[in-house]
Structures are given as C-alpha cells and as structure tokens.
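Intended use. Records like the one below are meant for learning the mapping from a protein sequence to its folded structure. Do not use them to infer anything beyond what is encoded.
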Amino acid sequence: MEIVGWTGTALVIIAYGPQIHHLWTERCAWGISIWMWLIWLVASALLLTYSILRGETLFVVVQTANIAAILTTLLLAKRSTEICPYHLGVIERGK
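Structure written out for the chain above:
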C-alpha cells in the first residue's frame, strides 16, 4: 500500500514541472493567481507541521516538495516580464 503513497508523491512533484518550465523558459506568468499560490503555501506549511508532529515521513516529503515548488513558482512569477505567444493568442481570442 505504501507504493501507492510514494507514487502519488512522485506525481505531485512531476505535476509542477510544466508550470515551472513555462515560467522559467517563457518568463510568462499570465493568468497565475499569486494569492492562490500564497494560500497554497500557507496550507502546505501547516500540513508539513502536522506531518512532522505525526511522524509521517511520506507526507513530510510531499509537503516539502510542495513548498519547494510553490516557492519556485512564486519567485519565477515575480520575475516574469513577458507574455508568451500562446497567452497572447488567448488574450486576442478573448477580445
């Protein structure tokens, strides 16, 4: 059963990849809600604290990965200076 938890943990980590890659390569944070990411950061910090107090190694790893990915997303979004061609198309189609 533990393999299911570790597989889920790996998927959580992998799921952040496309967002971080886009922010890194395109310097485009169009459509990102900073408030949502900040709330998610606080939630992850609370869950990490809970996991540490309960001695739940699997959840400590998940929340540590979440916090690292959220902080990376926030930092890359802050340095964003562009709107990528894809999102420009989205903006233009919405007019």
